[in-house]
Structure formats: structure tokens, C-alpha cells
Amino acid sequence: MKIRISRCIFMFTISLLLIANTSLAASESTGNLIVNISGFPSSDGFAMVALNDSEESYKGGENKAIAKTKTRVVDQKAQVIFANLPYGSYGVSLYHDENANEKMDKNAMGIPKEAYGFSNNAKGFFGKPSYKDVMFQLNSAEKQITIK
Hints:
This protein is α+β, with helices and mostly antiparallel strands. Helix content is 24%, strand content 36%. The N and C termini lie far apart (70 Å).
């Protein structure tokens, strides 16, 4: 009888350790991304920020982003936090919705009239930069990036 109880306690302890280890491993494989943005031409309106996790998502624009948010611009700066992201490759794109109409305003030739930016401060040539140029790795509990 003692052997049976000891075996049950042993199996219960092993089960608890496996559950704890699985929970710990899951929490270690996600992180928070903090995006610090500066250099807005004014403090009017919002920063419209999109997060992408693949080239396909990035090429699809705002509608294909895995997460998007808007935040008020204060003192020509903004900050966005994307929480609990799985470790991996990401890219951030944003624009300054200065007139708060929730769209990127462009002139008659299709050139943006509002400020915009990308992770790695990547620059495009006649269009947005490639995903390869904006991509970065999230592989820690917290990562901060700065976009000017």
C-alpha cells in the first residue's frame, strides 16, 4: 500500500513539474514590443501603427496587418506597445494621421501628404521599403525599437 501511495505522489509531482515547465516555456516564447516614435511634424492627430509578421502581411497593407492601433501624438512623439507577441520576425509601418480622418492622405499623384515611417527607419524608393528592410527579430521578453 505504501508503494502505491508513494508512486501516486511521485506521478502527481512529475505531472505538476511538466505543467509548470510548459507554462514557463510558453511565457518565455513571447515578448512585448515597444515602439517609440518621434519626429512628427506636429502634435495634431494620431499615429496609425501597423504590425506585420510576414512579407505577405506587409505587402497587404493595413488590412493584412496582424495588429494595428492608433495612439495620440503628444509633444510630437508617440509610443505603442504590442504585448505577448510570439518570438519571430516583424515589421512596423506607421503614418501620422494629422487630420484624424483615419486614412493616409495623398496628393493627386499618389504621394503621401502625411508623415510616415517604418521600422529600422527604412526608406523606400518610389514606394514603401521591402519587408526585408523593415524586418527585425523579437526574441526576448521585451524589445524596444525607435522610428523617426
